[in-house]
Amino acid sequence: MTDIPTVEALERQEEELLFTSFDHADAWKLGSRLTEMAQVAGHSIGIDIRRAGLILFRAALPGITPDQESWIARKSALVLRMEASSALVEARHASAGIDAVAAGWLGTDYAVTGGSFPVRVRGVGVVAAVTASGLSSQADHELIVEGIRQHLAAESDHRCANGSTTPGYP
Questions:
Q1: Are 1 and 139 in contact (CB under 8 A)?
Q2: How far apart are CA 68 and CA 86, in angstroms?
Q3: What is the pLDDT of residues 85-118, one digit of tens each?
Q4: 156 exposure class (CB count in 10 Å sphere: 0-12, 13-18, 19+)
Q5: How confident is the model at residue 4 (pLDDT cuts 50, 70, 90)?
Q6: What is the β-pairing status of strands 116-121 and 18-19?
Q7: What's the burial of 50, exposed, middle or buried (CB within 10 Å: 0-12/13-18/19+)?
Q8: In b/e form, how buried is each residue of 125-153, taking b as 16+ CB within 10 angstroms?
Q9: Contact 6, 12 (CB under 8 A)
Q10: Distance (Å, whole) CA 74 – CA 48
């Protein structure tokens, strides 16, 4: 695990990790990749990809507890509302000296802690949230970021192999 990322580093992640499109097949591929990464590492976690009101992918690895369901729902709700990763929302509040939980401005339906990341489609905006729960908030965040990086690299390689001359664009 690395040092806790700064607000600027988290903002760069969101600027860099843009999708050109995202549909149900993409959710399956990304979720399957994250699940395989977690299994190889021996993690007992839950992985979830959802749009508002619709779960697109779900995996519950051995050892996960029912508590992770609540964390997944609350982290993803934060991402879908704030359109930023839960780690970035947490870092922004911390750097401003705001305790969002104590202030009660979001309520119990939201978790201001790392572990959920927005699926942002270029020219469209946030269309889904990718969430992990079961590790530390930072480790959940890092797993998702690495999985998205690998997914986008594989999609870019696939597009280039099919004749596109610009990585990441059809």
A1: yes
A2: 15
A3: 999 999 999 898 888 777 777 888 999 999 999 9
A4: middle
A5: confident
A6: parallel
A7: buried
A8: ebbbbbbbbbbebbbbbbbbbebbeebbe
A9: no
A10: 12
User: Other C-beta atoms within 10 Å of 85: how many?
Assistant: 29
Strand pairing partners for 55? 50
Encode pLDDT of 16-29 as tens digits. Answer: 999 999 999 999 99
Q: 0.85 cut: is pTM over it?
A: yes
Q: Which residues, other chains included, contact 92 with Cβ-Cβ below 8 Å and sequence gap of 6+?
A: 7, 84
Instruction: Phi first, then psi: give them for residue 53, nearest 5 degrees.
Output: 80, 5
Helix runs in the chain, H state only: 7-16, 24-41, 66-82, 86-95, 100-103, 137-161
Q: What is the pLDDT of residue 165?
A: 46
For residue 73 the two structure tokens come to 């729902």
